[in-house]
Amino acid sequence: MSLQVSDLRVYYRTLAGDVQALDGATFSIADKEIMGLAGESGCGKSTLGNSLIRLDGRMKYVAGSVTLDGNSLPVWDNDGMNEFRFRDVSVIPQYAMSAMNPTRKIGTMIAELLESRGESYKEIRPELMRRIDLVGLQPDVLSRYPIELSGGMKQRMVMVISTLLDPSLLIADEITSALDVSTQRAVAETLVSFRDHGFVKSMMVITHDVSILYQTADTILIMYAGKLAEKAPTKTIIEDPRHPYTRMLISSLPEVGVRYANKKLSGIPGSPPALLNPPTGCRFRARCPLAFDKCAEEPPFIEIAGDHSVACWKATRADA
Amino acid sequence: MLSLNRVSKSYKVGTFGGKELVAVRDVSFDVDEGEVVSLIGESGSGKTTIGKMILKLVEISRGSITCDGTDVAGIHGGAVKAYYRHVQGVFQDPFSSYNPIFKADRVFSMIRSEYFADMARSEWSDKIEAALRAVTLEPDQVLNKYPHQLSGGQLQRLLVARALLLDLKFLVADEIISMLDASTRIDVLNLLADLKSRGMGILFITHDLSLGNYISEKTVILRRGAIVEMGATEKVFGNPTHPYTKVLITSVPQLHKKWADVEAEIRARGGDDSGTCLFHQAYPPTAGPAAADAPTLVKVEDDHYVGCFDLGQGICRVA
Question: Do B197 and B54 share a structural domain?
Answer without folding.
Answer: yes
